Amino acid sequence: MAKNKLSIYLIKKEIDEEKIFDEEKNDIEILKKHDDNKTSYFIPSYIHPPTWLKSFFEMESDKLRQANSRVVLLDKLNIDGEERIFAVVFGYAKNLFAEDVLEEQFGLKIVLNTVDINSIRKISKISVGGNQKQSQEQMPKTSNINEFGFDLDRDLIRDVTAKCNDEYFEKANITGGDIFSLLAEINIDNIDEFLIKCYKKYKEEKYKENFEWIDNIKEVKTKSDKVKLDETLMNYIIEKQWDCVWMSIPEIIAWEGIKGFKYLNDDEIEDDILIEKFIDSFKNDLHDIAQIKRRKIFMYDVNDEEVNSWGAYKCINAEIEINENMYCLNNGKWYCINKDFSKKIEKEYQSMKISNVEFIDYNESMKNEDDYNEQLANSLKNSYLMHKIGEIPFGGGTGNKIEVCDVMTINNELIHIKKNGSSAQLSHLFNQATVSAELLLDKSFRKSVNDKMKNCKFDRVLPSNYKSSDYTIIIGIINKNNEERPRIPFFSKVAIRYTIKRITNFGYKAEIKNIKKV
Questions:
Q1: In the sheet where 258-263 sits, what is the strand order?
Q2: 3-state SS string for 318-384
Q3: Fewest CB within a 10 Å sphere: which of 203, 222, 259, 265?
Q4: Residues 6+ away with beta carbon under 8 Å from 139
């Protein structure tokens, strides 16, 4: 028997068969009714010349033709008393399905229940809570998941390709995400037996032995769930529950060139974006999340010119609980957080040491973080405005530069400061603290730092017998909340947990500090 490339989806349990396909795809026809439970569908292929033949080559030819084939086999099976529908797709058939009908992580769980932890070949992932970076990584040979630079706490797996030893899957390379794909000697005559095997693999929980962390964070994809979450969010906003909902800049910006932000119907430029001010900018009462999704927030530079804007919904952070499940809204996406994982992160965040350094408040007379850093350095006895020496190159090239810290005290405290914002904004702060801590262990980097300190006429430089254990790294976050511990998004708590571990592994002491904005 010839091998066929199989791409298999599982239809969600509650979906009726007549609602599987997109209603707008009204040209779907039945290819063949194989039996009472198995029917294949298709969209007729239209042969046509490729568009680039005319647009690029400015020519026509009867010898060049193309067509996109789209076929879906729907197979309804009763498996241990449970009726499930499978969709086997061929060609470009994925876009035939209606929204929210496909079971999430169907293929991923089959793969992770089948393969060994050291047999991974390729992963696709998205880093949540930061810049939502999506990436693919592939190894030249089968490898452990840890060799892919995978962050178990912050990265979501989209799909995995791995080498399996399962005879039934022909010891092939198998790929799983929402879809399950492989090359196998399967056709219409033996597909039922194969799908039953796949489903039983999907239902196993063997993956929890090595891959239990995939259940820590899940992106909410189902439309009905997102609608329910948005409705709950809207209720929080109407009830002004600002301890659970707030706004922040959704990307990293150069604060030194920014004057502030403006909302529609509000002529005043604010120095930050605040949910209370944004909601007050609406002339009519708010009752629907669509009203917020239609709005933008505008950013202005020091010359009062608009330089950027974002959809307001993308700027909202929220942490809400529904039926004992924790959900986070971050950068326009909803995530469901495993309860045990959420409790573990919160417990670790609450255990982080608070600095007893006397920080001044951030007040309205300060134009930006640079102003604050300078006034803080002046307020702390015998401290040094390290921000003044600028960025130090490292590792070769002109693009690799890092600020050592913002302020260094006589007591060997290296202070990093940034305004509270989105997880992406704070991730930049945490990354700076981590990279700086590691680079300061390098003698040549310290020489570059000392040269800069001498140029600035500082009366002190880093010692030749530099020991990380003699230094404390303090991460200060400017907040409008008057609390001892900074109030930050859930994913920032995940990120700072990693940062503190890295810093302490380098031998430093690490502390955090809330800086009150008045």
A1: 258-263, 296-301, 306-311
A2: EEEEECCEEEEEECCEEEEECHHHHHHHHHHHHHCCECCCCCCCECCCCCCHHHHHHHHHHHCCCCE
A3: 265
A4: 120, 121, 122, 147, 148
Residue keyed to tokens 């007050």: 280
Q: Considering only CA atoms, which of 49, 98, 95 is closest in space to residue 71?
A: 95
Q: Which long-range contacts (CB under 8 A, 24 or more apart) does 428-433 make?
A: 428/252, 429/475, 429/477, 430/475, 430/492, 430/495, 430/496, 430/498, 430/499, 431/499, 432/402, 432/403, 433/405, 433/473, 433/475, 433/499, 433/503
Provide CB contacts within 8 A for 137, sequence distance 6+. Answer: 122, 123, 125, 148, 149
pLDDT (tens, 9 = 90+) of the chain, 518 residues, equals 788 999 999 999 989 989 999 888 878 999 999 999 999 999 988 888 888 898 898 999 989 988 888 899 999 999 999 999 999 999 888 889 988 899 989 999 999 999 988 899 998 887 776 555 677 888 888 888 777 777 777 778 889 999 998 888 888 899 999 999 999 999 999 999 999 999 999 999 999 888 888 888 888 988 889 999 999 999 999 998 887 888 888 877 877 788 899 998 888 888 888 899 999 999 888 899 999 999 999 999 888 888 888 999 989 988 888 887 889 898 888 999 988 888 899 999 999 999 999 999 998 788 788 899 999 999 998 899 998 898 888 876 555 789 999 999 999 999 999 988 666 678 889 999 999 999 999 999 999 999 999 999 999 999 999 999 999 999 999 987 788 899 888 888 888 998 999 999 999 999 999 999 88
- Residue 327: what residue type? Y
The Cα-based distances of 43 to 4, 27, 90, 181 in angstroms read 21, 6, 11, 22
For the record, the structure tokens of 97 come out as: 């399905």
| Residue 224: HSE in the Cβ half-sphere, 13 Å Cα cutoff | 4
Write out the H or E segment, with its range, that includes residue 511: strand 509-516
Q: How far apart are CA 201 and CA 113, in angstroms?
A: 6
Residue among 304, 301, 279 nearest 291 (CA): 279
Would you say the pTM of this structure is higher than 0.85?
A: no
Q: 437 is written with which tokens? A: 């801590």
Domain spans of the chain? 4-115+164-215, 223-337, 350-516
Q: Locate tokens 């630079």: which residue?
A: 149
Q: Which residues pair with 41 in a beta bridge?
A: 30, 72
| Exposure letters 347-365 (e unless 16+ CB within 10 A, then b) | eebeebeebebebeebeee
